[in-house]
Amino acid sequence: MDEHTFLTNRERAVDYLNSLDKVFVNDQFLNWDPENRIKVRIISARAYHSLFMHNMCIRPTEEELESFGTPDFTIYNAGKFPCNRYTHYMTSSTSVDINLGRREMVILGTQYAGEMKKGLFGVMHYLMPKRRILSLHSGCNMGRDGDVALFFGLSGTGKTTLSTDHNRLLIGDDEHCWSDNGVSNIEGGCYAKCIDLSREKEPDIWNAIKFGTSAGERCL
After folding, report:
1. Which key words are in the record (predicted)?
2. HSE-up of residue 114 (Cα within 13 Å, Cβ side)
């Protein structure tokens, strides 16, 4: 995709968001290491997408929010509105675009909330190595004596299950940074699969599913 196509999709998304009576804006952080966190702004058409990122990213305090300033990265989530399939490089009504130069992401034609999470993780893979920090697709927990374990694997291979060990402290279940300061969770929430979930096997995840939890791709 070239710059012109990105800007065409960006304009389409922004025009759609501007046409709505209400949009939802999240100003949040990525990375619990205060020296290396980034500021993100997510602008969404749907309350569900805003709640999802409210759960997944790190929430600023009231004082941090007042001095938040210009974000390091912005997402325009107009997923309810399709892209123009006749635009150059488009092959369907769905387009998920990241422009690292502009530090922006545009979502059109898909309401899968995970696009925002995965997109920001990709951005961290780009930004963190520039600071000599390793970004990791991993689960992480810590023993009572401060020993840290990392669990690597693709989605659905058991990182969350292994991380939520009742004998150890959970650091995070999916995305981490490893710097000279130690290992830090990129996110503020967990992104756990619910298939075959039981209280006996995964009590932490079971107990976390309550009012305020965002559950996607579920059939009720």
Report:
1. ATP-binding, Cytoplasm, Decarboxylase, Gluconeogenesis, Lyase, Nucleotide-binding
2. 9
